[in-house]
Amino acid sequence: MDLKAPVETIKNVGEKRKELLNKVGIYTVRDLIEYIPRDYADRSRLTPLCDVKEGEEYTVRAKMKKKPEMTARGRVVVVRGIINDGTGEAVAVWFNRGYLRNTFDMSKEYYFTGVFENRMGRLTLTSPDFEEVRESEAINAGRIVPVYHLTKKLNQKLLRKLIYDCLESIEGDIEEFMPYSVRRRYGLCGRAYALKNIHFPESRDAFFAARRRLVFEELFILRLRLLNIKKGIKKQYTGLEFSFFETDRIIGRFPFRLTSGQEEALEEIIEDMSQKHPMNRLIQGDVGSGKTAVAQVCAYIAYINGAQTAVMAPTDVLATQHYISFCELFEGMGISVVLLKGSMSAKEKRETKRLIADGEAHIVIGTHTLIQSDVVFKELGLVITDEQHRFGVNQRGLLTAKGTNPHTLIMSATPIPRTLGLILYGDLDITTIKTMPAGRKKIDTSFVDSSYHERIYNFIYKHVKQGRQAYIVCPVIEENDKTELKSVKEYFRSLEGTPLRELNTAIVHGRMKAEEKQRAMDDFAAGKTDVLVATTVIEVGINVANANIMLIENAERYGLSQLHQLRGRVGRGEHQSYCILVSDKKDKTVRDRLKTMVKSADGFELSEKDLMLRGPGEFFGVRQHGLPELKIANLYKDMDILREADDCVSHIEELSAEEYGAIIKRIGEIYDFDNKNVTF
Ligand code: ADP
Ligand code: MG
């Protein structure tokens, strides 16, 4: 049977069922057999009725003692029967399923599964699942049974039956594409066995073997594909070849000497940019490690090679900040820097776009507005994206498409654990800046409860009187009856009752208009405000060297990586800085997490811990994270298998052409592209 055939070609699937299956994403026979259960119920153990306890689920094997009775209770039809297995009896009840009255054959045995209760002194099973005991294998009982994600009108029993029958009829058509040598090396069972046992495991061990095989396969293919994208990029040619790399003029303008980490990053980048094919590199570096300076040198290199640079930042505030910092650096050099952001007037935007299209703008800084189709570049040679994981992977591609294979540089301050990086950045070369600018003092971090507020305010007061500034972060904007979380607005008002009332305080949060937000940030940067009460909008990009206190309320609300980002807003100048985490939660995991912050200043260490504690979904927050959707693998639980799959990919050259061909064919099936176009 052709696995690519539409699902309605299999037995028992007509128009109606086809539509139901389509709803859960099953279109072809292959989709059906690769529809992975979300869970399993272990019904392999049968319990004699005499051993059944109330309140628990069991599967029993029993006969219907006599034809069930049917009664009507108001509009509800009730079918009641007595089941008996020779060791005991129980009542089975169903509602509004009158037809069940005639379903049972009193001479046959059935599996009944459900929760047993005591009703009016009798052991009772309400709406149990049942299935006739047959010579052949049972589907819904007497075994470990699959539990699928459903949609209305599609029930477990139906889906189980369709998948079961389908697997039976096509077993011989399931192709093995993993070479024998690979399967041996990594201990992987065959594909047909894996698919059968992921749905209907013969035993627990069979399930684990099946899952391992399918997880490996999924991660292996994903890694291989990313690697091939990377190789594919290396085969493309940049429209613009860079040949000038004299950077003294720009580096001499920095008020500091580059750190060794920044220098090494630049060396790697220059090596990349001197090639004929485009650079595709990620610079990872902890908050404050000086990635912007590296980006600025790169933009300068693009300029002296006659190319435009686009710098894309995730927020207006960050884009503006970059704009200011680029303008300062390039001032008086004849290099034109422009800003394009959503909040500009239509006229301003039009004018800016003209400058970009004419090539008069050399460096273009903006938010995602840069990827809109009416932004046309004359000679885009370098694309820099900041804080990459906030953009989807696709957005990355859209901006690149505006040039003829421009060089791409991605900057991320969120250190990604290596395992996740393999997936998220598997198509990129990676540079890590490990050094911090000299003279940075360690941020003094403490973790306290609310009883410390008075002391904290006095502490802030004292520092502000010495000329410093402080941030206070609250988790929500407005107060809300449902939670006791601190809100920016309420908190701001409550400062009236503290020594901070004498200081200049201001608020900033995501629901303010862009200009208001900008003004609040500008005033803080200019030293006009002493204390800024904010939501996490200040998480990225704010750079006020004079601020030295970061107070985080309801610190339990944040993951380690996010706390680390927030903390990174201070410690940017010569002053000793402080981060104060406030939480009244007694929860041990919360306390441990916050204590980790006190102990560690290393973003990588914190992100590994975060991933361990919270899993990848949480790790990236609710924002679009750019992780591919996986059918079965779990990037957190299956890290070990990911490592093995990665190892396997790195030995791919050892396979024969025929073996490799089979794998490529499978990739083609998954990613739905024409095999002929696969160039790798
Ligand atoms: P991030 O890597 O978080 O983007 P930035 O590029 O914003 O870091 O740099 C943080 C601060 O450190 C900025 O104020 C910048 O001017 C400063 N800085 C960058 N490089 C150096 C250096 N080599 N020596 C001293 N200060 C530096
Ligand atoms: Mg930065």
Question: What brief labels describe this structure?
Answer:
680 residues; OB fold (Dihydrolipoamide Acetyltransferase, E2P); Rossmann fold; 7-stranded parallel β-sheet; globular; binds adenosine-5'-diphosphate
Question: What would a concise description of this structure say?
Answer:
With 680 residues, this protein is an alpha/beta fold. It contains 21 helices and 22 strands.
Structural account:
- The protein is an alpha/beta fold and 680 residues long.
- Among the domains are: 45-142, Beta Barrel (OB fold (Dihydrolipoamide Acetyltransferase, E2P)); 248-433, P-loop containing nucleotide triphosphate hydrolases (Rossmann fold, 3-Layer(aba) Sandwich); 444-600, Rossmann fold.
- The strands form four sheets. A seven-stranded parallel sheet has the order 12-13-11-14-15-10-16, sandwiched between helices.
- The longest helix is centred in the first third of the chain and has 32 residues, at 204-235.
- The structure holds adenosine-5'-diphosphate and magnesium ion.
- Adenosine-5'-diphosphate is lined by residues 256-259, 262, 285, 287-293, 413, 437, 543, 572.
* Unreliable stretches covering 5 or more consecutive residues: 620-625, 673-680
Do you know the CATH architecture of the domain at 248-433?
3-Layer(aba) Sandwich
Highest CATH level, the class of the domain at 248-433: Alpha Beta
Structural class: alpha/beta
By oligomeric state, this entry counts as single chain
Overall, the morphology is globular
Percent range for β-strand residues = 15-25%
Helix and strand topology:
Blueprint: H1 15-23, H2 29-33, E1 39-42, E2 57-64, E3 69-73, E4 76-84, E5 89-95, E6 109-119, E7 122-126, E8 129-132, E9 144-147, H3 156-170, H4 180-186, H5 191-199, H6 204-235, H7 248-251, H8 260-273, E10 280-285, H9 291-304, E11 308-312, H10 316-330, E12 337-340, H11 346-358, E13 363-366, E14 380-386, H12 393-400, E15 407-412, H13 418-424, E16 429-433, E17 444-448, H14 453-465, E18 469-473, H15 488-494, E19 505-508, H16 514-525, E20 531-534, E21 547-552, H17 560-567, E22 578-582, H18 588-599, H19 603-619, H20 639-650, H21 657-671
Parallel strand pairs: 5-7, 10-15, 10-16, 11-13, 11-14, 12-13, 14-15, 17-22, 18-20, 18-21, 19-20, 21-22
Antiparallel strand pairs: 1-9, 2-4, 2-6, 3-4, 4-5, 6-7, 6-8
Helix pairs in contact: 5-6, 6-20, 8-9
The structure holds adenosine-5'-diphosphate and magnesium ion (MG).
Magnesium ion binds at residues 291-292, 386, 413.
